[in-house]
Predict the structure.
Amino acid sequence: MPNVVVIGAGVVGLTSAYELLQAGHEVTVLAKQIPTDFQFATNYTSPFAGAQWASFAQAGDYDAQQLDMIGFYKFMQLAKTPETGVWNQEYVYYVTERQYKHVGSKVEWPWFLNMPGLNYKKFDKSQVPQGLGLEYGFSCDGVVISTTLYMVWLLNENLKTGRFKIQRKSITDLREAINLHHNGKADIIINATGLLARDLVTPEEAAKIHSVRGTTLLVESNAGKQYTVKDHIPEFPGEYLYAMSRQEGGTVIGGCFEYDAEDKTTIDPAQKQRYLERVKKYVPHLLNFKGELDIVREQVGFRPGRVGGPRIELDQKWTHDNGVALIHNYGHEGSGFLASWGSSARVLNATNDFLGFKSKL
Ligand SMILES: Cc1cc2nc3c(=O)[nH]c(=O)nc-3n(C[C@H](O)[C@H](O)[C@H](O)COP(=O)(O)OP(=O)(O)OC[C@H]3O[C@@H](n4cnc5c(N)ncnc54)[C@H](O)[C@@H]3O)c2cc1C
Ligand SMILES: *[C@@H]1O[C@H](CO)[C@@H](O)[C@H](O)[C@H]1NC(C)=O
Ligand SMILES: *[C@@H]1O[C@H](CO)[C@@H](O)[C@H](O)[C@H]1NC(C)=O
Ligand SMILES: *[C@@H]1O[C@H](CO)[C@@H](O)[C@H](O)[C@H]1NC(C)=O
Protein backbone atom coordinates (compact mmCIF):
# COMPACT_ATOMS: atom_id res chain seq x y z
CA MET A 1 0.00 0.00 0.00
CA PRO A 2 1.23 3.55 -0.71
CA ASN A 3 3.14 5.46 1.95
CA VAL A 4 1.68 8.89 2.68
CA VAL A 5 3.25 11.63 4.82
CA VAL A 6 0.82 14.30 6.04
CA ILE A 7 2.42 17.52 7.31
CA GLY A 8 0.21 19.15 9.95
CA ALA A 9 -1.85 17.83 12.88
CA GLY A 10 -4.67 20.35 12.78
CA VAL A 11 -8.19 19.24 11.93
CA VAL A 12 -7.35 19.31 8.21
CA GLY A 13 -4.24 17.10 8.48
CA LEU A 14 -5.80 14.59 10.89
CA THR A 15 -8.96 14.24 8.79
CA SER A 16 -6.89 13.80 5.61
CA ALA A 17 -4.96 11.07 7.45
CA TYR A 18 -8.25 9.44 8.55
CA GLU A 19 -9.63 9.24 5.00
CA LEU A 20 -6.35 7.90 3.59
CA LEU A 21 -6.15 5.24 6.32
CA GLN A 22 -9.73 4.16 5.62
CA ALA A 23 -8.67 3.72 1.98
CA GLY A 24 -5.88 1.37 3.16
CA HIS A 25 -2.82 3.65 2.97
CA GLU A 26 0.07 3.76 5.46
CA VAL A 27 0.18 7.27 6.98
CA THR A 28 2.77 9.23 8.98
CA VAL A 29 1.77 12.66 10.33
CA LEU A 30 4.64 15.11 10.92
CA ALA A 31 3.79 18.25 12.89
CA LYS A 32 5.34 21.03 14.89
CA GLN A 33 2.33 21.16 17.22
CA ILE A 34 -0.09 18.36 18.12
CA PRO A 35 -3.54 18.15 19.80
CA THR A 36 -2.22 16.88 23.16
CA ASP A 37 0.09 19.87 23.76
CA PHE A 38 -0.69 21.79 26.97
CA GLN A 39 -0.24 25.19 25.38
CA PHE A 40 -1.15 26.06 21.84
CA ALA A 41 0.65 28.65 19.70
CA THR A 42 -1.88 31.00 18.09
CA ASN A 43 -0.60 29.90 14.65
CA TYR A 44 -1.93 26.38 15.44
CA THR A 45 -5.50 27.40 14.77
CA SER A 46 -7.61 24.28 15.30
CA PRO A 47 -7.69 24.25 19.13
CA PHE A 48 -9.04 27.84 19.13
CA ALA A 49 -12.10 27.24 16.96
CA GLY A 50 -15.67 27.14 18.37
CA ALA A 51 -16.44 24.98 16.47
CA GLN A 52 -19.82 24.87 14.79
CA TRP A 53 -21.20 23.94 11.42
CA ALA A 54 -22.36 27.23 9.89
CA SER A 55 -21.28 27.44 6.27
CA PHE A 56 -19.87 30.73 4.97
CA ALA A 57 -20.23 29.59 1.32
CA GLN A 58 -21.82 32.18 -0.97
CA ALA A 59 -25.15 31.58 -2.72
CA GLY A 60 -23.70 30.57 -6.12
CA ASP A 61 -20.47 28.95 -4.92
CA TYR A 62 -21.41 25.29 -5.45
CA ASP A 63 -17.81 24.17 -5.06
CA ALA A 64 -17.54 25.51 -1.48
CA GLN A 65 -21.10 24.36 -0.74
CA GLN A 66 -20.19 20.78 -1.70
CA LEU A 67 -17.19 20.82 0.66
CA ASP A 68 -19.31 22.12 3.53
CA MET A 69 -22.37 19.93 2.95
CA ILE A 70 -20.33 16.71 3.17
CA GLY A 71 -19.24 17.84 6.64
CA PHE A 72 -22.76 18.57 7.86
CA TYR A 73 -24.03 15.02 7.36
CA LYS A 74 -20.78 13.53 8.66
CA PHE A 75 -20.88 15.60 11.88
CA MET A 76 -24.59 14.83 12.38
CA GLN A 77 -23.58 11.15 12.23
CA LEU A 78 -20.60 11.65 14.61
CA ALA A 79 -22.89 13.42 17.10
CA LYS A 80 -24.46 10.01 17.81
CA THR A 81 -21.13 8.89 19.37
CA PRO A 82 -20.31 10.86 22.55
CA GLU A 83 -16.56 10.18 22.57
CA THR A 84 -16.13 12.17 19.33
CA GLY A 85 -16.72 15.42 21.24
CA VAL A 86 -19.42 16.32 18.69
CA TRP A 87 -23.00 16.94 19.83
CA ASN A 88 -26.26 18.31 18.52
CA GLN A 89 -27.25 21.86 19.43
CA GLU A 90 -30.06 23.71 17.72
CA TYR A 91 -28.69 26.65 15.69
CA VAL A 92 -30.53 29.98 16.16
CA TYR A 93 -29.65 32.89 13.88
CA TYR A 94 -30.98 36.46 14.13
CA VAL A 95 -30.29 39.44 11.88
CA THR A 96 -30.46 42.93 13.41
CA GLU A 97 -32.41 45.83 11.89
CA ARG A 98 -29.04 47.55 11.46
CA GLN A 99 -27.58 44.67 9.43
CA TYR A 100 -30.78 44.40 7.36
CA LYS A 101 -30.59 48.11 6.44
CA HIS A 102 -26.84 47.83 5.79
CA VAL A 103 -27.42 45.29 2.98
CA GLY A 104 -30.16 47.42 1.37
CA SER A 105 -33.16 46.07 3.30
CA LYS A 106 -32.85 42.61 1.76
CA VAL A 107 -33.63 39.35 3.54
CA GLU A 108 -30.61 37.07 3.01
CA TRP A 109 -31.23 33.39 3.76
CA PRO A 110 -28.07 31.26 3.78
CA TRP A 111 -27.83 28.67 0.96
CA PHE A 112 -27.85 25.77 3.41
CA LEU A 113 -31.51 26.14 4.39
CA ASN A 114 -32.13 24.25 1.12
CA MET A 115 -30.24 21.19 2.36
CA PRO A 116 -32.48 18.15 2.88
CA GLY A 117 -33.53 17.30 6.44
CA LEU A 118 -32.34 20.49 8.15
CA ASN A 119 -35.67 21.09 9.96
CA TYR A 120 -35.48 24.85 9.68
CA LYS A 121 -38.02 27.40 10.89
CA LYS A 122 -38.03 30.97 9.58
CA PHE A 123 -38.94 33.89 11.87
CA ASP A 124 -40.31 37.19 10.62
CA LYS A 125 -40.20 40.43 12.61
CA SER A 126 -43.18 39.46 14.77
CA GLN A 127 -41.60 36.08 15.64
CA VAL A 128 -38.11 37.20 16.78
CA PRO A 129 -37.53 38.30 20.42
CA GLN A 130 -39.05 41.78 20.76
CA GLY A 131 -37.37 45.01 21.87
CA LEU A 132 -33.83 43.98 20.83
CA GLY A 133 -33.66 45.62 17.41
CA LEU A 134 -33.96 42.31 15.53
CA GLU A 135 -35.42 42.09 12.01
CA TYR A 136 -35.74 38.38 11.16
CA GLY A 137 -34.08 35.00 11.74
CA PHE A 138 -34.25 31.24 11.53
CA SER A 139 -33.45 28.13 13.55
CA CYS A 140 -32.33 24.69 12.32
CA ASP A 141 -30.54 21.49 13.35
CA GLY A 142 -26.87 21.94 14.16
CA VAL A 143 -23.71 20.53 15.72
CA VAL A 144 -20.97 21.85 18.01
CA ILE A 145 -17.53 20.27 17.94
CA SER A 146 -15.34 20.37 21.08
CA THR A 147 -12.11 20.98 19.24
CA THR A 148 -9.53 19.30 21.49
CA LEU A 149 -11.74 16.28 22.33
CA TYR A 150 -12.52 15.83 18.65
CA MET A 151 -8.90 16.03 17.49
CA VAL A 152 -7.83 13.48 20.10
CA TRP A 153 -10.67 11.24 18.89
CA LEU A 154 -9.38 11.56 15.31
CA LEU A 155 -5.86 10.78 16.51
CA ASN A 156 -7.06 7.65 18.33
CA GLU A 157 -9.15 6.42 15.40
CA ASN A 158 -6.05 6.79 13.23
CA LEU A 159 -3.86 4.93 15.75
CA LYS A 160 -6.37 2.06 15.95
CA THR A 161 -5.72 1.16 12.30
CA GLY A 162 -2.15 0.04 13.10
CA ARG A 163 -0.99 1.77 9.90
CA PHE A 164 -0.48 5.23 11.43
CA LYS A 165 2.36 7.07 13.21
CA ILE A 166 2.53 10.64 14.47
CA GLN A 167 5.92 12.30 14.84
CA ARG A 168 6.70 15.76 16.21
CA LYS A 169 8.84 17.47 13.59
CA SER A 170 9.31 20.99 12.17
CA ILE A 171 9.70 20.92 8.42
CA THR A 172 11.58 23.75 6.70
CA ASP A 173 11.46 22.30 3.19
CA LEU A 174 8.86 19.78 1.99
CA ARG A 175 11.61 17.66 0.40
CA GLU A 176 12.75 16.77 3.94
CA ALA A 177 9.51 14.84 4.44
CA ILE A 178 10.19 12.41 1.58
CA ASN A 179 12.39 10.20 3.76
CA LEU A 180 10.45 10.53 7.02
CA HIS A 181 7.68 7.98 6.47
CA HIS A 182 7.62 5.21 9.11
CA ASN A 183 8.13 2.62 6.34
CA GLY A 184 10.97 4.51 4.65
CA LYS A 185 10.29 6.56 1.55
CA ALA A 186 7.02 8.42 0.93
CA ASP A 187 5.02 8.08 -2.29
CA ILE A 188 2.74 11.02 -1.53
CA ILE A 189 3.03 14.11 0.69
CA ILE A 190 0.00 16.07 1.89
CA ASN A 191 0.60 19.69 2.80
CA ALA A 192 -1.88 20.54 5.59
CA THR A 193 0.10 23.25 7.37
CA GLY A 194 -2.64 25.90 7.77
CA LEU A 195 -1.37 29.43 8.22
CA LEU A 196 2.28 28.37 8.22
CA ALA A 197 1.93 26.95 4.71
CA ARG A 198 3.20 30.32 3.58
CA ASP A 199 6.71 29.38 4.78
CA LEU A 200 6.80 26.36 2.47
CA VAL A 201 5.37 27.71 -0.80
CA THR A 202 6.45 29.97 -3.65
CA PRO A 203 6.38 33.75 -2.99
CA GLU A 204 3.39 34.24 -5.36
CA GLU A 205 1.44 31.57 -3.49
CA ALA A 206 2.53 32.88 -0.07
CA ALA A 207 1.12 36.30 -0.99
CA LYS A 208 -2.37 34.74 -1.18
CA ILE A 209 -2.23 33.44 2.40
CA HIS A 210 -3.37 35.80 5.15
CA SER A 211 -4.67 35.51 8.69
CA VAL A 212 -8.11 36.40 10.02
CA ARG A 213 -7.96 37.08 13.75
CA GLY A 214 -10.69 35.72 16.00
CA THR A 215 -11.12 36.23 19.76
CA THR A 216 -13.36 34.25 22.09
CA LEU A 217 -14.22 33.83 25.76
CA LEU A 218 -14.74 30.35 27.15
CA VAL A 219 -17.24 30.60 30.02
CA GLU A 220 -18.62 28.03 32.47
CA SER A 221 -22.35 28.33 31.74
CA ASN A 222 -24.35 26.58 29.05
CA ALA A 223 -26.46 28.41 26.44
CA GLY A 224 -28.56 25.34 25.58
CA LYS A 225 -28.54 26.33 21.88
CA GLN A 226 -26.12 27.98 19.44
CA TYR A 227 -26.87 31.67 18.94
CA THR A 228 -25.63 34.03 16.24
CA VAL A 229 -26.77 37.67 16.08
CA LYS A 230 -25.53 39.01 12.75
CA ASP A 231 -25.02 42.76 13.12
CA HIS A 232 -23.40 45.69 11.39
CA ILE A 233 -21.48 47.88 13.85
CA PRO A 234 -19.77 50.67 11.88
CA GLU A 235 -17.13 51.30 14.60
CA PHE A 236 -16.27 47.58 14.87
CA PRO A 237 -16.63 45.94 11.48
CA GLY A 238 -16.57 42.14 11.57
CA GLU A 239 -17.76 41.99 15.18
CA TYR A 240 -21.00 40.25 16.10
CA LEU A 241 -22.16 37.88 18.80
CA TYR A 242 -22.00 34.11 18.56
CA ALA A 243 -22.25 31.59 21.37
CA MET A 244 -21.97 27.81 21.22
CA SER A 245 -22.02 25.32 24.08
CA ARG A 246 -19.82 22.28 24.31
CA GLN A 247 -20.63 18.74 25.30
CA GLU A 248 -18.07 18.70 28.16
CA GLY A 249 -19.50 21.94 29.61
CA GLY A 250 -18.91 25.62 28.95
CA THR A 251 -19.72 27.97 26.12
CA VAL A 252 -17.49 29.67 23.56
CA ILE A 253 -18.51 33.32 23.05
CA GLY A 254 -17.23 35.45 20.17
CA GLY A 255 -16.40 37.02 17.99
CA CYS A 256 -14.59 39.02 15.38
CA PHE A 257 -12.96 38.74 11.96
CA GLU A 258 -9.85 40.96 11.69
CA TYR A 259 -7.46 40.77 8.77
CA ASP A 260 -3.69 40.55 9.24
CA ALA A 261 -3.44 41.51 12.93
CA GLU A 262 -1.09 38.77 14.12
CA ASP A 263 0.70 41.11 16.54
CA LYS A 264 -2.49 41.29 18.69
CA THR A 265 -2.19 38.08 20.71
CA THR A 266 -4.40 39.12 23.65
CA ILE A 267 -8.01 40.39 23.86
CA ASP A 268 -8.44 44.12 24.24
CA PRO A 269 -10.42 44.79 27.51
CA ALA A 270 -12.81 47.13 25.66
CA GLN A 271 -13.67 44.34 23.22
CA LYS A 272 -14.21 41.94 26.11
CA GLN A 273 -16.65 44.47 27.62
CA ARG A 274 -18.54 44.70 24.31
CA TYR A 275 -18.86 40.90 24.23
CA LEU A 276 -20.28 41.01 27.77
CA GLU A 277 -22.83 43.72 26.82
CA ARG A 278 -24.01 41.64 23.86
CA VAL A 279 -24.42 38.57 26.04
CA LYS A 280 -26.47 40.66 28.54
CA LYS A 281 -28.69 41.83 25.70
CA TYR A 282 -29.18 38.68 23.61
CA VAL A 283 -28.28 35.60 25.71
CA PRO A 284 -28.70 36.72 29.36
CA HIS A 285 -29.15 33.14 30.57
CA LEU A 286 -25.36 32.73 30.16
CA LEU A 287 -24.79 35.14 33.08
CA ASN A 288 -24.33 33.95 36.67
CA PHE A 289 -26.52 35.14 39.58
CA LYS A 290 -24.37 38.27 39.91
CA GLY A 291 -25.01 39.17 36.26
CA GLU A 292 -21.44 38.32 35.25
CA LEU A 293 -19.73 35.74 33.10
CA ASP A 294 -17.58 33.06 34.75
CA ILE A 295 -14.66 33.24 32.33
CA VAL A 296 -12.43 30.17 32.13
CA ARG A 297 -10.12 31.37 29.36
CA GLU A 298 -9.64 34.21 26.87
CA GLN A 299 -8.57 32.89 23.47
CA VAL A 300 -7.05 34.44 20.36
CA GLY A 301 -6.70 32.46 17.14
CA PHE A 302 -5.77 33.19 13.53
CA ARG A 303 -7.86 31.61 10.78
CA PRO A 304 -5.73 30.50 7.82
CA GLY A 305 -7.25 32.56 4.99
CA ARG A 306 -6.39 32.30 1.32
CA VAL A 307 -7.44 34.47 -1.64
CA GLY A 308 -9.72 32.30 -3.78
CA GLY A 309 -10.53 29.81 -0.99
CA PRO A 310 -8.72 26.67 0.13
CA ARG A 311 -6.10 25.04 -2.10
CA ILE A 312 -6.84 21.32 -2.52
CA GLU A 313 -4.95 19.93 -5.49
CA LEU A 314 -1.95 18.01 -6.77
CA ASP A 315 1.08 20.31 -7.19
CA GLN A 316 2.12 19.35 -10.73
CA LYS A 317 5.43 21.19 -10.69
CA TRP A 318 6.67 19.96 -7.32
CA THR A 319 5.55 16.41 -8.13
CA HIS A 320 7.40 16.50 -11.43
CA ASP A 321 10.56 18.01 -9.92
CA ASN A 322 10.77 15.62 -6.94
CA GLY A 323 9.30 12.35 -8.25
CA VAL A 324 6.97 12.18 -5.21
CA ALA A 325 3.39 13.49 -5.31
CA LEU A 326 2.56 16.66 -3.38
CA ILE A 327 -1.10 17.36 -2.64
CA HIS A 328 -2.10 20.59 -0.92
CA ASN A 329 -4.93 20.96 1.60
CA TYR A 330 -4.67 24.39 3.24
CA GLY A 331 -6.24 27.85 3.48
CA HIS A 332 -9.64 26.99 5.02
CA GLU A 333 -10.04 30.28 6.92
CA GLY A 334 -13.15 30.11 9.17
CA SER A 335 -14.29 26.73 7.83
CA GLY A 336 -11.51 24.26 8.68
CA PHE A 337 -13.76 22.04 10.80
CA LEU A 338 -16.93 22.21 8.79
CA ALA A 339 -15.09 21.71 5.46
CA SER A 340 -12.62 19.10 6.77
CA TRP A 341 -14.51 16.02 5.51
CA GLY A 342 -15.26 17.44 2.08
CA SER A 343 -11.66 18.62 1.69
CA SER A 344 -10.28 15.26 2.74
CA ALA A 345 -12.59 13.50 0.25
CA ARG A 346 -10.97 15.69 -2.41
CA VAL A 347 -7.49 14.78 -1.16
CA LEU A 348 -8.44 11.12 -1.48
CA ASN A 349 -9.70 11.76 -5.02
CA ALA A 350 -6.46 13.52 -5.95
CA THR A 351 -4.48 10.64 -4.42
CA ASN A 352 -6.46 8.05 -6.41
CA ASP A 353 -6.08 10.07 -9.61
CA PHE A 354 -2.32 10.22 -9.08
CA LEU A 355 -1.98 6.51 -8.28
CA GLY A 356 -4.20 5.59 -11.25
CA PHE A 357 -2.07 7.75 -13.51
CA LYS A 358 1.17 6.27 -12.16
CA SER A 359 -0.03 2.67 -12.62
CA LYS A 360 -0.69 3.38 -16.32
CA LEU A 361 2.92 4.50 -16.92
C1 LIG B 1 -11.99 32.07 16.94
C2 LIG B 1 -12.10 31.05 15.87
C3 LIG B 1 -13.31 30.41 15.66
C4 LIG B 1 -13.44 29.46 14.65
N1 LIG B 1 -14.64 28.80 14.51
C5 LIG B 1 -14.78 27.85 13.56
C6 LIG B 1 -16.01 27.14 13.43
O1 LIG B 1 -16.96 27.40 14.18
N2 LIG B 1 -16.11 26.19 12.47
C7 LIG B 1 -15.07 25.90 11.62
O2 LIG B 1 -15.21 25.03 10.76
N3 LIG B 1 -13.88 26.55 11.73
C8 LIG B 1 -13.72 27.54 12.67
N4 LIG B 1 -12.53 28.21 12.77
C9 LIG B 1 -11.49 27.99 11.75
C10 LIG B 1 -10.66 26.75 12.01
O3 LIG B 1 -10.13 26.84 13.30
C11 LIG B 1 -9.53 26.65 10.97
O4 LIG B 1 -10.02 26.74 9.66
C12 LIG B 1 -8.81 25.30 11.12
O5 LIG B 1 -8.42 25.11 12.45
C13 LIG B 1 -7.61 25.17 10.21
O6 LIG B 1 -7.03 23.91 10.43
P1 LIG B 1 -5.66 23.44 9.79
O7 LIG B 1 -5.53 22.01 10.10
O8 LIG B 1 -5.61 23.88 8.37
O9 LIG B 1 -4.53 24.32 10.51
P2 LIG B 1 -3.93 24.26 11.99
O10 LIG B 1 -4.92 23.82 12.98
O11 LIG B 1 -3.27 25.57 12.20
O12 LIG B 1 -2.84 23.12 11.92
C14 LIG B 1 -1.62 23.30 11.23
C15 LIG B 1 -0.70 22.15 11.57
O13 LIG B 1 0.45 22.22 10.76
C16 LIG B 1 1.62 22.19 11.56
N5 LIG B 1 2.69 22.88 10.83
C17 LIG B 1 2.64 24.09 10.21
N6 LIG B 1 3.80 24.35 9.62
C18 LIG B 1 4.61 23.30 9.85
C19 LIG B 1 5.93 22.96 9.50
N7 LIG B 1 6.70 23.78 8.75
N8 LIG B 1 6.45 21.78 9.95
C20 LIG B 1 5.72 20.93 10.69
N9 LIG B 1 4.44 21.19 11.05
C21 LIG B 1 3.90 22.35 10.63
C22 LIG B 1 1.19 22.85 12.85
O14 LIG B 1 2.09 22.57 13.89
C23 LIG B 1 -0.18 22.18 13.01
O15 LIG B 1 -0.03 20.87 13.50
C24 LIG B 1 -12.35 29.15 13.79
C25 LIG B 1 -11.13 29.80 14.01
C26 LIG B 1 -10.99 30.73 15.03
C27 LIG B 1 -9.67 31.38 15.23
C1 LIG C 1 4.14 30.42 15.75
O1 LIG C 1 3.90 30.62 17.12
C2 LIG C 1 5.02 30.34 17.95
C3 LIG C 1 4.56 30.43 19.39
O2 LIG C 1 3.76 31.55 19.60
C4 LIG C 1 6.13 31.33 17.64
O3 LIG C 1 7.27 31.06 18.42
C5 LIG C 1 6.48 31.18 16.16
O4 LIG C 1 7.42 32.16 15.80
C6 LIG C 1 5.24 31.33 15.28
N1 LIG C 1 5.62 31.00 13.94
C7 LIG C 1 5.33 31.80 12.93
C8 LIG C 1 5.88 31.36 11.60
O5 LIG C 1 4.68 32.80 13.03
C1 LIG D 1 2.99 23.61 1.74
O1 LIG D 1 1.96 24.35 2.26
C2 LIG D 1 2.40 25.51 2.87
C3 LIG D 1 1.21 26.18 3.41
O2 LIG D 1 0.58 25.37 4.31
C4 LIG D 1 3.09 26.41 1.93
O3 LIG D 1 3.61 27.53 2.58
C5 LIG D 1 4.18 25.68 1.31
O4 LIG D 1 4.77 26.48 0.31
C6 LIG D 1 3.69 24.40 0.70
N1 LIG D 1 4.82 23.72 0.14
C7 LIG D 1 5.06 23.68 -1.17
C8 LIG D 1 6.31 22.97 -1.59
O5 LIG D 1 4.30 24.16 -1.98
C1 LIG E 1 -14.52 12.51 -5.77
O1 LIG E 1 -14.59 11.89 -7.03
C2 LIG E 1 -15.85 11.37 -7.35
C3 LIG E 1 -15.70 10.59 -8.67
O2 LIG E 1 -15.13 11.39 -9.66
C4 LIG E 1 -16.85 12.48 -7.46
O3 LIG E 1 -18.14 12.01 -7.75
C5 LIG E 1 -16.88 13.22 -6.12
O4 LIG E 1 -17.75 14.34 -6.20
C6 LIG E 1 -15.50 13.68 -5.73
N1 LIG E 1 -15.57 14.22 -4.38
C7 LIG E 1 -15.29 15.49 -4.08
C8 LIG E 1 -15.47 15.88 -2.65
O5 LIG E 1 -14.89 16.31 -4.88
In short: The longest strand covers residues 295-306. The chain has a mean pLDDT of 95.
